[in-house]
Amino acid sequence: MKDNELFWIFSGLFGFLAVATVIGLILKQVKGNTSVISNLNARIRAWWLMCIIAAVAISIGPIGSVVLFAFMSLLALRELITLTPTHRADHGALFWCFFIILPVQYVLVGVQWYNLLAVFIPVYAFLFIPTRMVLSGDTRHFLERMAKIQWSVMIAVYCLSYAPALLVLPIPDFTDNINLLLFLMIVVQISDVLQYVFGKLFGKRPIVPKLSPNKTVEGFIGGILSASCVGMALWWATPFSPWAAFLLSLLICLAGFAGGLCMSAIKRDSGIKDFGAMIEGHGGMMDRLDSLCFAAPVFFHVLKYFYT
Predict the structure, then answer these.
(1) Which domain holds residue 25?
(2) What's the farthest any 2 CA atoms get from each other in the chain?
(3) Who's near 201: CB < 8 A, 6+ residues apart?
(4) Beta bridge partners of 264
(5) Domains in the chain, number
Protein backbone atom coordinates (compact mmCIF):
# COMPACT_ATOMS: atom_id res chain seq x y z
CA MET A 1 0.00 0.00 0.00
CA LYS A 2 2.83 2.36 0.89
CA ASP A 3 4.55 2.00 -2.48
CA ASN A 4 1.26 2.58 -4.31
CA GLU A 5 0.58 5.75 -2.30
CA LEU A 6 4.08 7.10 -2.96
CA PHE A 7 3.70 6.28 -6.65
CA TRP A 8 0.45 8.22 -6.94
CA ILE A 9 1.74 11.16 -4.89
CA PHE A 10 4.85 11.54 -7.03
CA SER A 11 2.89 10.86 -10.22
CA GLY A 12 0.57 13.74 -9.36
CA LEU A 13 3.50 15.98 -8.39
CA PHE A 14 5.51 15.35 -11.55
CA GLY A 15 2.35 15.52 -13.64
CA PHE A 16 1.64 18.96 -12.20
CA LEU A 17 5.20 20.03 -13.04
CA ALA A 18 4.83 18.67 -16.58
CA VAL A 19 1.66 20.72 -17.10
CA ALA A 20 3.35 23.79 -15.62
CA THR A 21 6.33 23.29 -17.96
CA VAL A 22 4.07 23.14 -21.01
CA ILE A 23 2.17 26.25 -19.89
CA GLY A 24 5.45 28.08 -19.33
CA LEU A 25 6.68 27.21 -22.83
CA ILE A 26 3.36 28.31 -24.37
CA LEU A 27 3.47 31.62 -22.50
CA LYS A 28 7.03 32.15 -23.69
CA GLN A 29 5.99 31.63 -27.32
CA VAL A 30 2.84 33.76 -27.08
CA LYS A 31 3.93 36.59 -24.78
CA GLY A 32 7.67 36.54 -25.40
CA ASN A 33 10.43 35.94 -22.89
CA THR A 34 9.43 38.74 -20.50
CA SER A 35 11.01 39.02 -17.04
CA VAL A 36 7.91 37.55 -15.37
CA ILE A 37 7.70 34.57 -17.74
CA SER A 38 11.46 34.02 -17.58
CA ASN A 39 11.27 33.96 -13.78
CA LEU A 40 8.30 31.57 -13.90
CA ASN A 41 10.14 29.12 -16.15
CA ALA A 42 13.26 29.37 -13.98
CA ARG A 43 11.16 28.50 -10.93
CA ILE A 44 9.64 25.51 -12.74
CA ARG A 45 13.09 24.19 -13.72
CA ALA A 46 14.24 24.57 -10.13
CA TRP A 47 11.14 22.71 -8.92
CA TRP A 48 11.97 19.80 -11.24
CA LEU A 49 15.44 19.54 -9.72
CA MET A 50 14.22 19.88 -6.13
CA CYS A 51 11.48 17.28 -6.60
CA ILE A 52 13.90 14.81 -8.20
CA ILE A 53 16.35 15.24 -5.31
CA ALA A 54 13.52 14.76 -2.80
CA ALA A 55 12.30 11.63 -4.61
CA VAL A 56 15.80 10.11 -4.58
CA ALA A 57 16.28 10.91 -0.87
CA ILE A 58 12.90 9.42 0.04
CA SER A 59 13.57 6.30 -2.03
CA ILE A 60 16.69 5.69 0.06
CA GLY A 61 14.53 5.59 3.18
CA PRO A 62 14.19 7.63 6.39
CA ILE A 63 17.95 8.13 6.67
CA GLY A 64 17.98 9.68 3.20
CA SER A 65 15.34 12.20 4.27
CA VAL A 66 17.21 13.06 7.47
CA VAL A 67 20.49 13.57 5.58
CA LEU A 68 18.76 15.73 2.96
CA PHE A 69 17.23 18.02 5.58
CA ALA A 70 20.50 18.19 7.52
CA PHE A 71 22.24 19.41 4.37
CA MET A 72 19.49 21.96 3.72
CA SER A 73 19.79 23.15 7.33
CA LEU A 74 23.52 23.61 6.86
CA LEU A 75 23.01 25.79 3.78
CA ALA A 76 20.17 27.78 5.37
CA LEU A 77 22.18 28.38 8.55
CA ARG A 78 25.11 29.61 6.49
CA GLU A 79 22.87 32.09 4.66
CA LEU A 80 21.40 33.47 7.88
CA ILE A 81 24.77 33.82 9.60
CA THR A 82 26.36 35.60 6.63
CA LEU A 83 23.65 38.29 6.49
CA THR A 84 25.74 40.55 8.73
CA PRO A 85 29.44 40.42 9.61
CA THR A 86 30.32 38.36 12.69
CA HIS A 87 33.06 39.18 15.19
CA ARG A 88 36.18 37.07 15.41
CA ALA A 89 35.11 36.28 18.97
CA ASP A 90 31.99 34.54 17.59
CA HIS A 91 33.89 31.99 15.52
CA GLY A 92 34.20 29.49 18.36
CA ALA A 93 30.44 29.52 18.98
CA LEU A 94 29.76 29.29 15.24
CA PHE A 95 32.02 26.24 14.98
CA TRP A 96 29.86 24.54 17.59
CA CYS A 97 26.67 25.57 15.79
CA PHE A 98 27.72 24.22 12.39
CA PHE A 99 29.73 21.14 13.34
CA ILE A 100 28.35 19.96 16.68
CA ILE A 101 24.84 21.29 17.39
CA LEU A 102 23.46 20.83 13.86
CA PRO A 103 24.73 17.24 13.39
CA VAL A 104 23.65 16.21 16.91
CA GLN A 105 20.11 17.51 16.32
CA TYR A 106 19.75 15.43 13.16
CA VAL A 107 21.33 12.37 14.75
CA LEU A 108 18.66 12.63 17.46
CA VAL A 109 16.04 12.74 14.71
CA GLY A 110 17.64 9.77 12.96
CA VAL A 111 17.73 7.61 16.10
CA GLN A 112 14.17 8.73 16.97
CA TRP A 113 15.05 10.15 20.41
CA TYR A 114 12.12 12.57 20.60
CA ASN A 115 12.43 13.55 24.27
CA LEU A 116 15.92 14.91 23.70
CA LEU A 117 15.55 16.32 20.17
CA ALA A 118 12.65 18.46 21.44
CA VAL A 119 14.78 20.22 24.07
CA PHE A 120 18.38 19.87 22.87
CA ILE A 121 18.52 23.21 21.02
CA PRO A 122 15.94 25.37 22.86
CA VAL A 123 17.43 24.44 26.26
CA TYR A 124 21.00 23.17 26.08
CA ALA A 125 22.24 24.83 22.88
CA PHE A 126 20.37 28.03 23.74
CA LEU A 127 22.29 28.29 27.01
CA PHE A 128 25.59 26.99 25.64
CA ILE A 129 25.89 29.48 22.74
CA PRO A 130 26.07 32.67 24.89
CA THR A 131 28.28 30.88 27.41
CA ARG A 132 30.77 29.99 24.68
CA MET A 133 30.60 33.52 23.29
CA VAL A 134 31.17 35.26 26.63
CA LEU A 135 34.31 33.22 27.23
CA SER A 136 35.95 35.16 24.40
CA GLY A 137 35.75 38.31 26.53
CA ASP A 138 34.27 40.44 23.72
CA THR A 139 31.17 42.23 25.06
CA ARG A 140 30.60 44.61 22.12
CA HIS A 141 26.96 44.28 20.93
CA PHE A 142 26.85 41.03 22.88
CA LEU A 143 23.05 40.74 23.06
CA GLU A 144 22.67 41.50 19.36
CA ARG A 145 25.34 38.97 18.33
CA MET A 146 23.98 36.30 20.65
CA ALA A 147 20.37 36.79 19.51
CA LYS A 148 21.36 36.57 15.85
CA ILE A 149 23.16 33.27 16.28
CA GLN A 150 20.46 31.77 18.52
CA TRP A 151 17.68 32.81 16.13
CA SER A 152 19.57 31.37 13.15
CA VAL A 153 20.05 28.02 14.87
CA MET A 154 16.46 27.90 16.09
CA ILE A 155 15.00 28.56 12.64
CA ALA A 156 17.44 26.86 10.27
CA VAL A 157 18.19 23.81 12.42
CA TYR A 158 15.65 23.26 15.19
CA CYS A 159 12.43 24.26 13.42
CA LEU A 160 13.41 22.65 10.11
CA SER A 161 14.39 19.39 11.83
CA TYR A 162 10.74 18.88 12.74
CA ALA A 163 10.03 18.03 9.10
CA PRO A 164 12.03 14.74 9.08
CA ALA A 165 11.04 14.27 12.75
CA LEU A 166 7.56 13.44 11.42
CA LEU A 167 9.07 10.06 10.55
CA VAL A 168 9.33 9.20 14.28
CA LEU A 169 5.72 9.98 15.24
CA PRO A 170 4.00 6.84 16.57
CA ILE A 171 0.50 7.27 15.14
CA PRO A 172 -1.73 4.27 15.93
CA ASP A 173 -2.63 2.09 12.94
CA PHE A 174 -0.54 4.25 10.61
CA THR A 175 2.99 3.32 9.54
CA ASP A 176 3.51 5.34 6.35
CA ASN A 177 5.00 8.36 8.09
CA ILE A 178 6.88 9.34 4.95
CA ASN A 179 3.45 10.38 3.63
CA LEU A 180 3.16 12.90 6.46
CA LEU A 181 6.42 14.51 5.39
CA LEU A 182 5.29 14.62 1.77
CA PHE A 183 1.90 16.02 2.82
CA LEU A 184 3.60 18.85 4.73
CA MET A 185 6.06 19.69 1.96
CA ILE A 186 3.51 19.56 -0.86
CA VAL A 187 0.88 21.66 0.91
CA VAL A 188 3.29 24.31 2.17
CA GLN A 189 5.24 24.65 -1.06
CA ILE A 190 2.20 24.62 -3.32
CA SER A 191 0.68 27.30 -1.07
CA ASP A 192 3.66 29.53 -1.88
CA VAL A 193 3.27 28.81 -5.59
CA LEU A 194 -0.49 29.41 -5.64
CA GLN A 195 -0.19 32.61 -3.60
CA TYR A 196 2.27 33.82 -6.25
CA VAL A 197 -0.07 32.78 -9.10
CA PHE A 198 -3.23 34.27 -7.55
CA GLY A 199 -1.32 37.41 -6.67
CA LYS A 200 -0.09 37.84 -10.25
CA LEU A 201 -3.53 37.14 -11.73
CA PHE A 202 -5.83 38.95 -9.31
CA GLY A 203 -3.67 40.82 -6.80
CA LYS A 204 -4.60 44.43 -6.17
CA ARG A 205 -4.35 45.13 -2.44
CA PRO A 206 -0.97 44.55 -0.71
CA ILE A 207 -1.48 42.67 2.54
CA VAL A 208 1.57 44.24 4.26
CA PRO A 209 2.54 47.15 1.98
CA LYS A 210 5.61 48.33 3.90
CA LEU A 211 7.06 44.83 4.15
CA SER A 212 6.24 42.94 0.97
CA PRO A 213 4.21 44.87 -1.62
CA ASN A 214 4.09 41.79 -3.90
CA LYS A 215 2.08 39.81 -1.33
CA THR A 216 -1.59 40.68 -1.84
CA VAL A 217 -4.85 39.96 -0.04
CA GLU A 218 -6.14 38.20 -3.16
CA GLY A 219 -3.01 36.06 -3.44
CA PHE A 220 -3.15 35.22 0.27
CA ILE A 221 -6.79 34.12 0.25
CA GLY A 222 -6.72 32.33 -3.10
CA GLY A 223 -3.39 30.60 -2.52
CA ILE A 224 -4.07 29.41 1.02
CA LEU A 225 -7.61 28.18 0.36
CA SER A 226 -6.64 26.38 -2.85
CA ALA A 227 -3.59 24.80 -1.19
CA SER A 228 -5.82 23.66 1.67
CA CYS A 229 -8.08 22.00 -0.90
CA VAL A 230 -5.02 20.23 -2.32
CA GLY A 231 -4.27 18.97 1.18
CA MET A 232 -7.86 17.81 1.53
CA ALA A 233 -7.52 15.90 -1.75
CA LEU A 234 -4.50 14.06 -0.27
CA TRP A 235 -6.36 12.78 2.78
CA TRP A 236 -6.24 9.20 1.48
CA ALA A 237 -2.45 9.08 2.01
CA THR A 238 -2.72 10.24 5.64
CA PRO A 239 -4.42 9.21 8.89
CA PHE A 240 -6.75 12.24 8.58
CA SER A 241 -10.35 12.51 7.48
CA PRO A 242 -10.93 14.82 4.48
CA TRP A 243 -12.05 17.74 6.65
CA ALA A 244 -9.24 17.20 9.14
CA ALA A 245 -6.80 17.23 6.22
CA PHE A 246 -8.31 20.54 5.07
CA LEU A 247 -8.06 22.15 8.52
CA LEU A 248 -4.50 20.90 9.06
CA SER A 249 -3.56 22.19 5.62
CA LEU A 250 -5.10 25.56 6.45
CA LEU A 251 -3.13 25.68 9.70
CA ILE A 252 0.24 24.91 8.14
CA CYS A 253 -0.43 27.28 5.23
CA LEU A 254 -1.08 30.09 7.71
CA ALA A 255 2.06 29.18 9.66
CA GLY A 256 4.01 29.08 6.40
CA PHE A 257 2.68 32.51 5.44
CA ALA A 258 3.84 33.89 8.80
CA GLY A 259 7.27 32.37 8.19
CA GLY A 260 7.50 34.01 4.79
CA LEU A 261 6.60 37.40 6.25
CA CYS A 262 9.14 37.12 9.08
CA MET A 263 11.91 36.13 6.70
CA SER A 264 10.92 39.00 4.38
CA ALA A 265 11.26 41.38 7.34
CA ILE A 266 14.79 40.10 7.97
CA LYS A 267 15.72 40.60 4.33
CA ARG A 268 14.15 44.06 4.25
CA ASP A 269 16.04 45.04 7.41
CA SER A 270 19.29 43.72 5.89
CA GLY A 271 18.70 45.49 2.56
CA ILE A 272 18.73 42.35 0.42
CA LYS A 273 16.24 40.81 -2.00
CA ASP A 274 17.13 37.14 -1.47
CA PHE A 275 19.10 35.16 1.08
CA GLY A 276 21.27 33.75 -1.73
CA ALA A 277 21.33 32.78 -5.38
CA MET A 278 21.88 29.01 -5.36
CA ILE A 279 18.35 28.07 -6.57
CA GLU A 280 17.44 29.47 -9.98
CA GLY A 281 14.35 31.67 -9.79
CA HIS A 282 13.98 31.17 -6.04
CA GLY A 283 17.02 32.82 -4.45
CA GLY A 284 18.78 31.02 -1.62
CA MET A 285 17.97 27.93 0.40
CA MET A 286 16.35 30.00 3.14
CA ASP A 287 14.09 31.66 0.56
CA ARG A 288 12.70 28.23 -0.26
CA LEU A 289 12.48 27.00 3.34
CA ASP A 290 11.09 30.06 5.11
CA SER A 291 7.50 28.77 5.11
CA LEU A 292 8.49 25.21 5.98
CA CYS A 293 10.52 26.34 9.00
CA PHE A 294 7.40 27.77 10.63
CA ALA A 295 4.96 25.12 9.43
CA ALA A 296 6.98 22.00 10.37
CA PRO A 297 7.03 22.36 14.19
CA VAL A 298 3.37 23.45 14.24
CA PHE A 299 2.32 20.43 12.16
CA PHE A 300 4.45 18.04 14.21
CA HIS A 301 3.08 19.10 17.58
CA VAL A 302 -0.55 19.23 16.47
CA LEU A 303 -0.18 15.62 15.26
CA LYS A 304 1.62 14.61 18.45
CA TYR A 305 -1.06 15.98 20.72
CA PHE A 306 -4.11 14.89 18.73
CA TYR A 307 -3.04 11.76 16.81
CA THR A 308 -0.58 9.86 19.05
Answers:
(1) 1-59
(2) 63
(3) none
(4) none
(5) 3
